Amino acid sequence: xxxxxxxxxxxxxxxxxxxxxxxxxxxxxxxxxxxxxxxxxxxxxxxxxxxxxxxxxxxxxxxxxxxxxxxxxxxxxxxxxxxxxxxxxxxxxxxxxxxxxxxxxxxxxxxxxxxxxxxxxxxxxxxxxxxxxxxxxxxxxxxxxxxxxxxxxxxxxxxxxxxxxxxxxxxxxxxxxxxxxxxxxxxxxxxxxxxxxxxxxxxxxxxxxxxxxxxxxxxxxxxxxxxxxxxxxxxxxxxxxxxxxxxxxxxxxxxxxxxxxxxxxxxxxxxxxxxxxxxxxxxxxxxxxxxxxxxxxxxxxxxxxxxxxxxxxxxxxxxxxxxxxxxxxxxxxxxxxxxxxxxxxxxxxxxxxxxxxxxxxxxxxxxxxxxxxxxxxxxxxxxxxxxxxxxxxxxxxxxxxxxxxxxxxxxxxxxxxxxxxxxxxxxxxxxxxxxxxxxxxxxxxxxxxxxxxxxxxxxxxxxxxxxxxxxxxxxxxxxxxxxxxxxxxxxxxxxxxxxxxxxxxx
Length: 506
Fold this sequence. Notes:
There is one protein chain. Strands 12, 13, 15, 16, 17, 18 and 23 form a 7-stranded antiparallel sheet that branches. Strands 6-7-8-3-9-10 form a 6-stranded mixed sheet, with helices on both faces. The chain is built from 10 helices and 24 strands. It folds into 3 domains: about 10-235, P-loop containing nucleotide triphosphate hydrolases (Rossmann fold, 3-Layer(aba) Sandwich); about 240-330 and about 495-505, no CATH class; about 335-480, no CATH class. The protein is of the alpha+beta class. β9 (about 205-210) and β10 form a beta hairpin. It starts with 7 loop residues before the first strand and ends with a strand. About 20% of the residues lie in helices and about 30% in strands.
């Protein structure tokens, strides 16, 4: 806002088409120079709202003001806003230059000024040198930039964008998101961007309005809307949420309210007063363990019913008595299979000495002193076999210590549940629990994920492969994360602070 006056102010706007109420009392403000997105599903009224602001639709009730001036009686061509449509609406028989210059010529701008402004705008959208080209010779992204230049060359005080990236493929759409944001920053005018793409709205916007059935559900920064959804609809539409309903026990002794699900676990609900309610938790905030955690965290036992590998991440569906829960796990660890024949048998690489058997470190045992049994071998010494997770039927065999360990690079061959055999290269030393397996796993309380076995998000001791039998299945105090397979029985665990109360269930 400039001097407290928003670039666009919408108050109580209603618009119906027969029996369908497209807009039902919409209130919102767009600040000067802000990138503001209106996000919602198809049919929620977002395009109708954009058309009402631009003067292409007349509201049945309510007001629209541009920089403090009511524009209800101002026709579209005289409003100080321009629109970029999803179809771009370029004139196919005109060159790029003539398309961009069209609005200026209609307004009677002099020839010299038209040429200067068009060339400056084509420089801005990085299309200099394409002035004589026709639209059909351009790519989708280039046509989108021509439409953007044509709208901005008139120097509007606000720009309206009706899903301008929807027709582009995924890779080009991502590139054009950055382009849109760059242009908006350079011209400094308010952009109102309509989209149904949640990721696009979160990536581009200073603030987001979530629209549903013609009503504004929430307005906030992308982080606010995602991290603290105001309604059940926002929680389910913006990203994915695990929704859990039940009757909470009133808090006792200043603690959180509690949703109990018998032997299948419980959900802690800080700030709730008890009674019927619904809780949301994001899939990336939960994790899986094979061991029941203590009462200080939320935990539900269930069966893995689906595993979907998505490249950068893996999504698990876990069916519990409370709800079907989704768990997102980032695929940051190396591929869980051997990269050379010796890795499968625990053979040390590059001529290192063969591994020997050593006593495994017991879960929960104190961290041994340097050089004692169970410690990682000193540089140049043989390898170490570390006990696997209880009930897993496997072990994590370390390759022999040699120049790699001495240089802070530890090579391991891992076997988890007798199913996964792979090699992990760790960066760091054995000294103070800092071995990190390429930043994704820790052998001594380091943290991260080891494919097919466990991860130690934190802690002060123990080696990878040692899973505690108390607390949250901890390695030196951290929680154990497993990669599940369909049919596995696991515990889905999260911190109480990540439980968000959405409302009372009647």
